[in-house]
Amino acid sequence: MTLLFRLDAGREVGYGHLSRCLALARVWAGRGGRSHFLLGTGDPAALDLIREAGCTSACLPEPRAEAAFIPDRPCRAVVVDLNHAHTLADLDDFVERMDFLHRRIAPVVLLDSLGEQGIAHRRVVPAALVVRPYPGVEPLAPGAQSLALTGPTYAVFAPELLAAVVRPRFIRDRARRVLLTFGGSDPSAATLLALAALHHLDDPDLEVEVTLATGFAPDLSRAITSAAATLPRRVTLLRGVRQLAGPMNRCDLALAATGLTKYELALTGTPSIQFSINRSHHAVNRSFAAAGAAWNLGVQADLSPESLAAALAALLADAERRRDLSRRGQELVDGRGAERILDGIMKLSSVAGGGRLPPSESG
């Protein structure tokens, strides 16, 4: 049986939601299922990632033209992961589009967020399941008939990452290696801020690993490469890295944004300092920060290289705090979120829709 994934991915909206859906698709494949991805735009990096995962894909003729989509095989469910600015700007339009998918294709499973980035607490969405894999609870909008699956126990991870997790993680007294990781596109150039902060640390023996994902703009990648070359310490640029299990396990702590990567850091027990790329992301992240699984510094615009360096120096020197962050992170998530979501999908009573898929972008 096929799962249909409706999402967008690219430098503007990022690649975190695509990574989450690909992880869910891998677990679904382990159950013998197939996955087809339907995107609003044909971002080359996104299409490559889908193809490498062994899934098929297609692009809508227009970003919001779900009504033009007719599948050629039964779909068990339509997994929708569209929480970005374009969706939030017109929720009435989003609800109408979801109603088409829910009535004509298959039951909708909405992967939702919280606060300003959430949808289901503000609108009644035609969805059989609403999944909000975050700490904190918000009621669904009055009149909603969806089943809500809420909490970090529904956080989704790739099988490759799960296989690399060690519990409990061993935390060394002396931290020697730092990971800088700011998502699949780093739209706010947070990596440059983190590299600038490292100039203010005195320890020349500190080693640094920096992720440079395929979704980074060429100008940003060049700027990061140049900035890294000026640091008086060993810096390893991880270009096009697909899985962060190795870097997370190697490094003693991480500097990261408060996107979905924070759950991977929590799962691997990697102590981290995190900040949000804007105030909307910061508001959504409050419940995670309250769990104590990371040291949260607030919003990027409020930070300077000096203030970020001071926090990094403090955590490098405090082994007990790093151990506490590691323990709290691994207590927050257990890695079985994908299985729980798929169990919920399998309990859905019926499959709606039929017809034909549009021509596939990837076979």
Folded structure, characterized:
The protein is built from 13 helices and 13 strands. By secondary structure, it is of the alpha/beta class. The protein folds into two domains: 2-157 and 336-346, Rossmann fold (3-Layer(aba) Sandwich), CATH 3.40.50.2000; 160-332, Rossmann fold. A seven-stranded parallel β-sheet has the order 3-2-1-4-5-6-7. The radius of gyration is 20 Å and the shape is globular. The model is unreliable at 350-363 (pLDDT under 50).
Topology:
Blueprint (H helix, E strand, L loop, with lengths): L1 E6 L8 H15 L3 E6 L4 H9 L3 E4 L15 E7 L3 H4 L2 H14 L3 E4 L17 E4 L14 E4 L8 H5 L13 E5 L8 H9 L8 E6 L5 H12 L5 E5 L5 H6 L2 E5 L3 H8 L3 E5 L2 H12 L4 E5 L5 H13 L1 H14 L4 H10 L17
Parallel strand pairs: 1-2, 1-4, 2-3, 4-5, 5-6, 6-7, 8-9, 8-11, 9-10, 11-12, 12-13
Helix pairs in contact: 6-7, 6-11, 9-12
Which descriptors apply to this entry?
363 residues; alpha/beta; Rossmann fold; 2 domains; six-stranded parallel sheet; 36% helix; 18% strand
| Uncertain stretches of 5 or more adjacent residues | 350-363
CATH superfamily of the largest domain: Glycogen Phosphorylase B
Which architecture of the largest domain does the CATH hierarchy give at level 2? 3-Layer(aba) Sandwich
Domain unit count: 2
Helix content: 25-40%
Estimated share of beta-strand residues: 15-25%
SSE order, one letter for each helix or strand = EHEHEEHHEEEHEHEHEHEHEHEHHH
Shape: globular
User: Helix- and strand-based class?
Assistant: alpha/beta
CATH topology descriptor of the largest domain = Rossmann fold
CATH class of the largest domain: Alpha Beta
Q: How many individual helices? A: 13
Total strands: 13
